[in-house]
Specification:
six-stranded mixed beta sheet, alpha/beta, single chain, Rossmann fold, 15 strands, 17 helices, Spore Coat Polysaccharide Biosynthesis Protein SpsA, Chain A, 42% helix, 3 domains
Length: 440
Amino acid sequence: MRLQPKISVVMTVYNTEKYLKEAINSVLNQTFENFEYILINDASTDNSLEILQSFRDKRLRIVNNPVNMGVAASSNIGLDMARGTYVIRMDSDDISLPHRFETQLNYMEDHPDIGVVGSWVRCFGDQTDDYVWEFPLQHHEIRANQIFNPKIHHSSIIMRKSLLDRYHLRYNPRFTRSLDYEFYVRHADKLTFANLNEVLLLYRRHPEQISTGYFNEQQQLAGEVRLSELGKLGITPNEREFLLHQMLSIGSFRPDREFVDQSRSWLEKLWFANKQAAYYSQNEFEKVLAIKWTDVCSAVAVRNEGLAGEIWTRKFYEFPLHDKAPLPENEIKPVKLQDLARGVKNVVIFGTGRVALNLYAKLKSKYDVIAFIDNNKEVQEKTVFGIPVMSMESFIQCAGKNPVVILSSILGNHDQTVMNKIADQCKDIQAIVLSWKDLL
């Protein structure tokens, strides 16, 4: 007798023949095996349907749409068909790690109050560096971030089917892009969110994917979601304010004084509005605004060297929440650096973002910070506080035999991978590679 599936996996497919087999195999090779696999072919014009039909696993349930309905409508077909206690979503070009289902199932079983759980995600692809998206973990953190972006990766989620059925939670078919963002926000009063601080999904970046090829349409629809969230705060933005909010949301920071001033005013407006509306957790919302402000200042200071001094001596401190941005630790103890580095005084900091600049501020009085290293070509050959920003390759070429300490300002569980890469690239110079966590 066939078991009732514990999990229903819902995957929509449209013209992903290049990646489909790998995606399907990552599901079929899970350590947890009691699931049904609902695949909706949305009238693909390539060989996707033939690939689906080549699999003989009895857990597969294949639906072939006669016409293209779009990812949201196709997803709703899968939700209606799902018989499992939980629903897992996954895109047809991504890869689930083998223990994903087991890990997320155990979490949901242990936390009956949670409705949707995502995970951290490792990005990969032919034209992208290997890096990890580390999303906030707790419900109020995730919700506060939704003023800008969803912060829970759709292809990584597991959902409680009883909530989907009780409140008839479905995707909006009009949202052919950003359907997850709209879904989370529209149903926010019915769902409690969480993310697991573990990479369970590999997210493929490639030219054919929706979020690359249809960026403008995606941001137009995401903008509608952001407008609805602003409305919950009692804000109806004018055209200039809305454009600014869109730019802040996607990290498109114009490197001039006017943009910095406008960003500060807008973030203050959001802060005061939430104080009145009490829509988001005020404490978490203040952290989100503070991080956004620090990101603006960091990006503009790096891209406009003439403004850097003014930003870090005055403008940064004009935002009332400037000190609310959480760092991984409250204190760094630079005295430990000398012990770990065997007396080496020259320091190089990997990165030019918020953490890197805070690290510099802590170390500059006792150590000679001789360079920043950043893989972002937009900031290379510029200076931060008069200190050159270099690529790793350029630094290695000019480092010679002078001993240095290279400090990684990158955060999270993938620190060691990054540190190993840096150490490997610097093996021909006298370098000691340390994570900032080594200083604590």
